[in-house]
Hints:
Layout (H helix, E strand, L loop, with lengths): L1 H21 L3 H9 L8 H8 L3 H13 L3 E5 L7 E5 L1 H15 L2 H4 L3 H14 L1
Helix pairs in contact: 1-5, 3-4
Amino acid sequence: MRRLMDLFASTLDHQGTFLETLGLTYSQAKLLWRLEVGDTPSLKELARRCGVDPSNLGGVVDQLTERKLVVSRPAEHDKRVRVVRLTADGVRLRRRLVACMAQNPAIDGLSPKRQNQLLEILREVS
């Protein structure tokens, strides 16, 4: 169990480094990660994907809107519903985020075969 916690800690350190490099908070990165390119979910749906209450996500959407990474507008079907989508700058930053998340120094040192074995184990337990 200790080794698993050490891996978790090193992953958090790596995550903190690249989030700082990208100029994102954890909440902003989580929203960008859960917002697919071309997708326009409602704020409520996006909050569900992020595992948070919609009232907690509004401020994050506002921050990303100020940075011109997302746009938020009323939905076509119901003007009371707010939908969110990535801008071109948001798509570029999301791609960088995904690339950073795909790299993990602790796991990159494993052979491809061992990485696949680890992935299989993680699929079983998650």
